Amino acid sequence: MRAIQVDQPGGPEVLSVVDLPVPVCGPQQLLVELAYSGVNFIDIYQRQGIYPMPSPYVPGLEGSGVVTEVGSEVSGFAIGDKVAWPSSLGSYATLHLVNASSVVKVPTGVELDVACAAMLQGMTAHYLVSSLYEVKPGDVALVHAAAGGVGQLLCQMISSRGATVIATVSTGAKAEIAQQAGAAHIIRYDSEDVATKVRELTNGQGVEVVYDGVGLATFDGSLASLKRRGMFALFGGASGMVAPFDLQALSRMGSLFVTRPTLADYIAGPGEMQWRADEIFAAHTAGKLNFAIGNTYDLADAATAHIDLAARRTTGKLLLVP
Ligand code: NDP
Predict the structure, then answer these.
(1) Can you name the CATH fold of 137-260?
(2) What ligand 1 atom has the least distance to the C-alpha of 42?
(3) Where are the chain's structural domains?
(4) What is the mean pLDDT of residues 105-127?
(5) Long-range interactions of 172-180: CB distance < 8 A, separation 24+
(6) What pLDDT shows up at residue 215?
(7) Of 63, 69, 107, 282, whose CB neighbour count within 10 A is largest?
(8) What is residue 10's predicted lDDT score, i.e. its pLDDT?
(9) Which residues form the Enoyl reductase (ER) domain (predicted)?
């Protein structure tokens, strides 16, 4: 099978195309022929070695495809089923062995590109608005990098819950995308001061919740944009990881909450991953949630996808076609 392999941490050049033996299906596993592998920002952190990884490893956590072999102890799946998963390392490949407990079935009528996009970024946006903080009608939320993969989904999910989105983006084209996704207000954080603008837009009040996957560059502005007792969801560091922080500042700034979540902890409960997938697929089928595929690349061009994502040239979901 064809796969991308990383032998040592580094830049995009460490993503090389290799031929690997077809893996043997274990009793609780499924062998899946991939239709799409999802590209996510975490793939970059892992490739760079910011998150420690085995060596060598096949990158990619997210994928969708068709089951070609079913493990002897697996029930409820058959050859030919369409499945998708948000978190199974080794997904940049033509074939992937995945634990049956780590996949969801793709319902009829949902295309495999959408199914892939709905996994890591979709479930992340879902837990951020429904579990980490339950967005309510009337809330005002600040969403950074709102034209990105998670960002566009957050805009849609927050606005559909009757709350107002203040979005940050770095270009005019991205501003239009964020508005189409449901953002009521745009801040160009490449040229405007975020906290000042947020105070102007909220009559000095600040926002109930900040969703920040940008990290280092936005951290201070995010904190300063919150309302008293507001919630700061720091869920990534696309601009760099945030340095250690003085917790006393939270008291001085209005008894704020800060959390640093990760998807794995929000799909760990019994049935939790399936519940999120069901809600996401249902919203999509009802025409209430759009998955914007920003670009597709051949599997062999994974390095180009990483370069584009890190250079802020992309919007929406990036997919590799094995
Ligand atoms: P995006 O599509 O959002 O791409 C990242 C965006 O971040 C860019 O397009 C850019 O938008 C913005 N950005 C700002 N500064 C930089 C910078 N210096 N370098 C690169 N990008 C920058 O990616 P994803 O949707 O895949 O992920 C968004 C964030 O969410 C990431 O931090 C990711 O790690 C995190 N994440 C966290 C999860 C969790 O459970 N904790 C799960 C999934 C994702 P602009 O040009 O508008 O500034």
Answers:
(1) Rossmann fold (3.40.50)
(2) 34
(3) 2-119+267-321, 137-260
(4) 97
(5) 173/147, 173/315, 174/146, 174/147, 174/315, 175/147, 177/146, 177/147, 177/152, 177/292, 177/315, 177/316, 178/143, 178/146, 178/147, 178/151, 178/152
(6) 98
(7) 63
(8) 98
(9) 10-320
* 141: three-class secondary structure by DSSP: strand
Query: For residue 160, what are its two tokens?
Result: 């559909």
Do 281 and 290 form a contact (C-beta atoms < 8 A)? no
How many angstroms separate the CA atoms of 246 and 26, rounded? 47
305 lines ligand 1 (CB under 6 A): no
186-203 residue pLDDT tens: 999 999 999 999 999 999
Q: Give the model's pLDDT for residue 270.
A: 84
Q: What is the DSSP letter of 11?
A: S
213 touches ligand 1 (CB under 6 Å): yes
Residue range 2-119+267-321 forms a domain whose CATH class is alpha beta
Two tokens, residue 314:
């992309």
* Residue 121 near ligand 1, beta carbon < 6 Å: yes
